[in-house]
Amino acid sequence: MTIEMSDDKALLDVPRVHGWLASSYWSPGIERSLVERAIAGSHCLGAYRGDVQVGYARAITDHATFAWIADVWIDQPARGQGLGRRMVQWFIDHPQFAGIRRIALVTLDAHGVYEGIGFHAPIRPERYMERLGPGVADRLRAQP
Predict the structure, then answer these.
(1) What is the 3-state secondary structure (H, E, C) of the chain?
(2) How far apart are CA 45 and CA 59, in angstroms?
């Protein structure tokens, strides 16, 4: 059975997405209400095998100059088939993302996946800054 993708938020299996993200290394234990707010404020993409959601990704974007790809998740049985790359490529190819100057993402272990579609380390990393919420820096320092 083929995997279809849609950015129709009404199709998202929010409890399933919440479960995935709550078990991830980047948002362990995230509250469902935060996932719902993130969905509401993002351009979301679901991947579906029939009626079952098998993937999720979202872009935080103004649809003009910048997009941040986040929360790319593929259900375990669907992994290893190029779906994560395909979902990120979907955003790159989508007409609403045409002409965006910078699309960014962060990954712990999928650099090779995204390098294959044009992502690379920042050219000027010394210009990037971040502000972390309370406790986030400590959690990040404790992780590999």
Answers:
(1) CCEEEECCHHHCCHHHHHHHHHCCCCCCCCCHHHHHHHHHCCEEEEEEECCEEEEEEEEEECCCCEEEEEEEEECHHHCCCCHHHHHHHHHHHCHHHCCCCEEECCCCCCHHHHHCCCCCCCCCHHHCCCCCCCCHHHHHHHCC
(2) 8
Q: Give the pTM.
A: 0.92
Smallest CA-to-CA distance from 58 within 29, 33, 94 is with: 94
pLDDT tens readout for residues 34-45: 999 999 999 999
Cα–Cα distance measured from residue 72 to residue 84, given in angstroms and rounded to the nearest whole number: 7
- Tokens at 43, concatenated: 């351009």
What are 110-124's pLDDT values in tens digits?
Answer: 898 899 999 999 999
User: Letter for the amino acid at 55?
Assistant: G
